[in-house]
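Changelog-linked ticket: 0O2 example.
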Amino acid sequence: MFYSQSDEWSRTLLLYDSALKEINTRIEIMNNDFKLAHQYNPIEHVTSRIKSTQSIAKKIRKLNLELTVENIVRYVNDVAGIRIICSFTSDIYRLAELLKRQSDIRVLRVKDYIQNPKPNGYMSYHMIVAVPVFLSDRMVETKVEIQIRTIAMDFWASLEHKIYYKFEGKAPDHIRRELKECAELVTFLDRKMLSINEEIKEYAMAQELREYQEMSEEAANSETEVVTVESVKLAKRIPAELPTVEILYEELEGMQDEKQHGDKKTGNSADSYTDKVPFLSEMFPGGKKKKKKEAGAT
Ligand code: 0O2
């Protein structure tokens, strides 16, 4: 690169570095939120890097271009790169969707090497996105390449990368064949792991449902009715994504109706709710204290 462009390159590198920080933070937030909502962590780990100057120069040479900052910014899409390693293939698409939904992220290109693996067997989901970077005097949209793949896909890609470099891109046929076979095993393994995970989830759900039913039977025979968010979610099969408070309101409105139509008494706002849902008195401190139902009342 020309010496006269070194300042411009330093400013450009600052943009790429900031864009990586932006995306990394968003991924971390999504992962934490997901963990809270679903008690499940879809991301195994995340790595990020700024492409080395040698690799950038190699790519620019391959494209038959002059090595200038303008050409790098315009034609090298992966100067800033993030790799997200997920547990299951389904997590890959879920995360990609969540990123696409962020209103200020512009998806420039998607390459789905999972649906369409490369001839050598390479599998990964690639997105080139533009993310806004706010400097002291302006905003600059900056490109980041996001690669999302499973642990098994990543394992394969790392080994293949090493072998590719070892043979300088000219690996013997039988090694290429064997690598392709390994890629097929990776697909098999990912599918198998996903189906085992689905089975475990179903088993856990059935178990919780059984416990809920037992709890409901016990509650029916006792004086106080106990409703927990988990039991409501399970009983109504409400998607876990719905915020807890919304579920409560939905359930409570149902109870309110039931109460009004059942004994003709008019319940009133949080006060009457707290009668039925003991822990709500903590959320609505103004409400009545927990009461036991009158003996014999329905
Ligand atoms: P490195 O060392 O990771 O930086 P584009 O200009 O974006 O259209 P490109 O760069 O071929 O063209 O895009 P693509 O196909 O999305 O690949 C970008 C990156 O994906 C590569 O970057 C690799 O990291 C990875 N990749 C793609 N194909 C393979 C493959 O067959 N095997 C392995 N192991 N990784 C692959 P770089 O710049 O090649 O390398």
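Closing comment: Example verified and attached. DSSP finds ten helices and five strands in the chain. Residues 263-298 have pLDDT under 50 and may be disordered.
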